[in-house]
Structure formats: structure tokens, C-alpha cells
Queue: 4 jobs
Job 1
Amino acid sequence: MRTTFGLGLTLACILAAAPVATAQSGTDPIAPKRVQWSFQGSFGHYDRASLQRGFQVYKEVCSACHSLNLVSFHSLSEPGGPGFTEAQMKAIAASYKIPADPNDKGDIFDDKGNRLMRAGTPADHFPPPFANEQAARAANNGSLPPDQSVLVKAREGGTDYVYSICSGYGQTPPAGFKVTAGKYYNPYFDGWNISMPQPVSDSSVTYSDGTKATIDQECRDAATFLTWAAEPKMEERKHLGFEVILFLLLLSGLLYLSYRRIWRDMH
């Protein structure tokens, strides 16, 4: 009797606790929006125009806070990339300032204490917007903006997640949810309170190709560019995979014909 009562009491406690657990998980991020991308599937490829627009969004908006440490300038003109010409790539690289090596006196600072800088070259990587983590946190209310080089690969949901976060602002929080001071409501972010303010708005950039710069378009282009940054050899990998499969099919056919020829007189 006591055992039955104990089991019943335990079950009652579990059932009573269930609504509490549900309430605590109420700020789990909602599933990312599902978007059709040109690079999806075995024969997918990057949209060059979107890549170039996405680079423009990164350079004019995202690079104010986010680094792209693993991406070098020369990759902008390589096969499988955004499709910039070599001259365009070199001009882009030269527009960035890179910390210079020590001069002939061994100095890395000028007489005013400023770091010696030089124009970027194709071999350089994109320079970070802040000198170090402390400077980055100081400029962002204690939060550290993540490097975007492999952000798409590092987040569950990949490209859809990046696009959803970018375009997920401007919604009304549900009743009872409190937006923390200094944070912003975004239901696609874990906990719904995100440190990053809305990154883009209509006409945040003026696209050089004349495309209308809506929030949706800017987020799509930025997500496409960051997907390429995380996987610049995707098209080459897919082409190689197709060639390997074709080779294996031909090899299988030749092996089958060889088998038939060798064993036809044995039956």
C-alpha cells in the first residue's frame, strides 16, 4: 500500500513539473525559415550576382563589427568565387589598411603613436574591425561579435539560420516576454534576446548592379556570401563528386563485361 502510494506521489510530481519544464523552454529559437538557394542540391551553384551583392553588404554593413579572418582577398577572383576580375580584386584589397611590418628602424608606430599601416594586397586576409577581443567587447556593450568566416557551418540551420537571424527583427514579442535592456527581440535566436541590433534596413546599401535593396534581398545576399566564405570550394567539390560517380559507373560496367567474358565459357 505504501509502495503504491509512493509511486502515485512520484507520478503526480512528474506530471506537475511537466508544465514548468515546458514554460522554461518557451524561449527556444523557432525553426529557421526554409529558403530555396541556388547552391542547394548536387548540381547547385553560387549566384555570382548575389555573391557580389553579398560582399557589398558585408563590406558596408557587417564589417563594422564582424571579422572575416579566414578569407583572403585573392579568393574573390578565383574560380568558384564571387567572380570579381583580378583588377577588381586588387582594388578591393588596396582599399583596406593592413598593419605594416617594422620599418627600416624597426618601428611599428609613427612619432604620434599610431600603428604603421599599408594598403592590402591579394595575399592578405580581411582585417578585423577591432584590434583585439577587449576592444570588440568595449564597442559592443560587452558582447563579442562572432567571426563570420565559417559562421554558416558553425550554426545549426546553416544558411537558413543566418538569413532568418538577419531578417527576423521587427516582430512584436509575445505577451509576458521581457526584452532585456540593451538587447533586441529576435525569435530565431536562442533565448530571443540578441545583442546585435537589426543589421540592415531597406536601402542600407545602394547596389552597384541596380538591384532594389530591400531587407529581404540584403539578407539573402549576405547569407549567400557567407555561405561561400565558409565553403569556397563547394562547386569544385560537387564537380569532382560527379566525375567520381561517373568514373565508378563506367568502371562497374567494364568490370561486369570483363566478368561475362571470362566466365561465359564456364557455364
Note: The longest strand covers residues 97-99.
Job 2
Amino acid sequence: MVNLVEDGVDLAVRIGHLPDSTLVARQVGEMRAAGRGLQGLSQTARRAKDAAGIAAHDTIQFGAMAAGPDWRFVEDGHEIRIAVTPRFSSNSSDAAIHYAEQGGGLTRVMAYQAAASLKAKRVQIVLEKFELPALPIHIVYPTSRLLSAKVRTFIDLVAETVDWHFG
């Protein structure tokens, strides 16, 4: 995460809840959180029925989503954590998704990363009703200087023409 002012960056796209700061934030979409799982269609017979059932499945850890050893879910309005020991770990969402397609286990990636595999029906979503709320997508920019016409135009163009509601 760069410091926009110190590093001379005009703007950034940030996914997630923003801490209080001096940056101006404009919400331009939302991203489904990684609280659900994906599995290959060949695994349908072993489909996870509830969040606690994750422990009985092989899991594939995607490094960017590895905030800790637990997978987080929401059940009956409360966050729960399920400890998992991944069968396979990767810092590539493509590798994690491909391995899930081949029957390697359940994985968690962001919605946009799995869109093509979901559309082609190579994977399916499991535990959707237990997923965490969507994360906001913001364009953030510093208030310490005036925005150039190019940056202002870019922000307006994104807000008006881009559909960043992934889910």
C-alpha cells in the first residue's frame, strides 16, 4: 500500500474498508468477499453443506487471501472461523482455481478472479449463504493538492461507465 502524497501518486483503487485518513474516497463498486468457497464440479457429491464442514474437505490456499490459517464465515449473524490446513498453497489465483477445477479441493478467491471459470461451469460456488458481506471498492486521492483535469476526468469516467460490482 503506497502513501499517495509521499510517493506522488495521483490516485489508487482500494478494495476493502478504509481507515480514517486525509484521503478523499469515492465508492465505485463492491467486491464479494472471499468468505465463500469454490469447488470443481466433479466434487459435487462431497459438497460442503455448512461452514463447519470445511474442515472435512481438502482446501487450496490462495496466498493473497491468506490473512491467517482460518477461513471466516458468517452464520446466524455471527462471524465464525474455521481452521484449515491447506492441501495446496499458491500465490496465484489462476493456479488455485485450476486446481479446484481438477478436483483438488475448495478454494477462496475474489469473484472477478473466478468469473470465467464460473461462467464456463468448471467450478461452482459453495457456502454462498455463509459468505462475508461485500467489500467496497473506492478510488482514493489526496486532498493536499488540486486534481489535474486528467485525474478528475478518469475518476468521472470510471464512476459513469465501469461496472465494478463483482459478486
Note: The longest strand covers residues 23-31.
Job 3
Amino acid sequence: MTKKVRPLVWLAGIVMTVVALGPAVDAVQQSLDQKVRAFLDRHGYSWRDMNVSSEDGRILYDLVVEHGYKRALEIGTSTGHSGTWIAWALSKTGGNLITLEIDEGRYREALANFKEAGLAGFIDARLGDAHEIVRTLSGPFDFVFCDADKEGYKDYLVAVLPKLEVGGCFAAHNVSSRMRRRGWGAGDFLGYVENLSFMETTFAEGSWTGMSLSFKRAEK
């Protein structure tokens, strides 16, 4: 009888500990939320150097939270605006972000921004050529945001698709339906991804610069 009761007591202890930690965890998240909001407010009008707008940042945040994504990859960090929004969302889903930047100056500035925002612990920022690094990443990923050299979008997609989970999203910045008529740069990427039977592509509402959202479905 005693041997049967002990595991139940042990399990009850774990449940009680988790319940007791609930308010503490909530307090930590609330503190982080306040820090990130304050950071974004301070830098609200200073994001240049190929960063996304605040509206696009919010779109990225909502995508991650609503789908519960946890394993994210960003191709093109710049100085960290989009990465801040993505990592903030990941702090709520229990995920992490790998972000890639080729320019050392932007990379160093992004590191400082991630630290100031309180999000450095959720981000693995890497310096180097994304064309080379993406091929070496094992994945899997459930969310990818691409905002690098537009002519390379198709190559990035091809390299990351085998590592993108079913249900995952490949979001591409500065891509709109108007590009279908173009056969170069991001237009080449768009024509390619829209012809993949296992990818469902739409466009983010509220993004004036354009953002395509391609969700991976099970291949038939």
C-alpha cells in the first residue's frame, strides 16, 4: 500500500509546485512585457537601415502567438526590430529565434538592442552569409521570416523547405501580389512558391510594404 501511495504523493507535490509557481511566472512575463514595450516606445521612430515597420512587427508577433510557433528562423536581422517582435512573441509560446545577419555593424547593433529589450535569452544571433548558414541548420522550424537580399528569396525557400514543419509559415517581406508579373528578385520567388502544391500563399493585411505568408501543408 505504501509503495503505491508514494508516486501519487510525489505527483501531487509537482502539481502543487506548478500551481504555486503560476503567479511568479505571470509576474516575470508581465515584467518582460513592460520592458519590451518601453524599449519599442523609446525606439519607435529610430528604426531605419532596412528594418520593418511597427505594423509589420505586430503582424509577425501575431502570427507567432496565434499559431503557437516555437522554433523560428529569421533571415536578415538588420538592427533587430523584426527580431524583437518575433522574440517577444516567442517568450509567450516558450520558443526561441535564430537570426542571421551578414553585416557586422548591423549585427552588433542588433545584439545591443536585444539586450536592452530584455530578449537576448530568447535569441541566437549569428553573423555570416545566410546563403551558407541556412544550409547548415538542422531545424526543424515552424516559422521563418525572410527579409534579406530579394534575389535570394527563392534560394532561401528551397534551402529551408525540407526543414519547415507542416503547418509552419515562410513569411517574406516586401512581397506583394503585384510582383506576379515580374520575373526577377522577389517576383521570381513568388512565382515559385505559388506553384508549389503543398504551400498555401496569401498576403498579410495591413502591411503597406507587402508581406507574403506561405503555409506548408501535408504533401499528397
Note: Confidence is low (pLDDT under 50) at residues 1-6.
Job 4
Amino acid sequence: MGANPTAIPARLDRGEPADVVIVLREAMDKLVAKGQVEKESVVDLGIGHIAMAVKAGAPKPDIRTVDSFRNALLAAKSAAYTDSAGGIYLQNVLFKRLGIEKQMTAKSKMISGLPVGPGLARGEYEIAFQQLSELKSVQGIEIVGLIPDVVQKATTFSAGIATRAANPQDGRELIHLLASPAAFPAIESSGLEPAQLHAEASIK
């Protein structure tokens, strides 16, 4: 959802064909407003959370509490995060909230258009942040854990039918499958929480 040319909004702007679009909810809402995705077709699929990772074999700092998490950030020599919602939240909100904006700005890098995992595995930075679901499959890194609940930012991933879809009915069937209980195990194993289960838990 960033401003780079490979981001889904930019690809749709160029007229790249798509039947189903799966993006963060806030990006989806913008695509609906621009008339690129059918509003009535949008369905929430999964809820993601920000995780912290280190290079494989590196010490894993304690991030179980806000204080220990803050200390881990200050102790790290370098950090990286993507230009997606989680990274923007870290850079523009969380670091300020923790009172360490100046320290983190001096040693942090926002990665545009690429995942942070491969660079972390190469040792380009000491710690990195991204959605847990986007870190789990990366070789050469180890996930420290989710950042503390008190400062966590949950992110909703949604699917919708592109207004220029060549196969809208097939797209609807796919979205129906992805939002059904049959898909819950795959969603959970990927590091996300099924959106329907999250909604039911919130109601309770």
C-alpha cells in the first residue's frame, strides 16, 4: 500500500488487470472510494499483528513488557520496517509515544516495496519489524515475538472484487472460500487471526 510503483494501488492505477484484490483495510477503503473495487464485495479475511525479528542466531531481547520493549529499541544499533501500515505506525506514532523518536530516527530505515526479512537475514540491520505473517516464512531470521499488546496495532486484511474484473463471479467464489471456516486453519498457520473469529470474540 506504499507509494512505490509495485504497490497494488499503483498497479491498479496503471490499469493492471485483477479479479480479486487483497490489501489492508485502510488501503481497500481508498480503492473503493476511487471506484477501483466494488464496495459491496469487500470482506475482511484476517487480522495481523506487528512482530519483531532478529537475524538467526542473534540474541533475542526481552520485549514482553512496554519497558523492556523500549529498552530493546534503545539498545539496538539499527532497525528496519516496511512502508506499510505497521511501519508507518512505528515511525509516526509508536516511537513518539515511547519518547524515543529522536534515537530511533537516527538508526532506523523504512524499506520501500520490499519485505524486511531478507535484509535482516543478511545482517543489514539488527532488528526488524513487519507483520508476523510476512516474517514467518523468511529463512535466516528468528521471530522474537509480537510487540506488547498495549502498543500493538492490529491490521485488517480485506478482499474485494476489482470493478474491471474479467471474472467477477469466480472472484466472489474465491473470496467466499477465503472467508469461510474451511480457510481458518490456513489463515491461522500463516500468522493471522481469522477476521470472523476476531469479530465474534469482540462481541463476547
Note: The domain at 8-47+154-203 is CATH 3.40.190.10 (D-Maltodextrin-Binding Protein; domain 2).
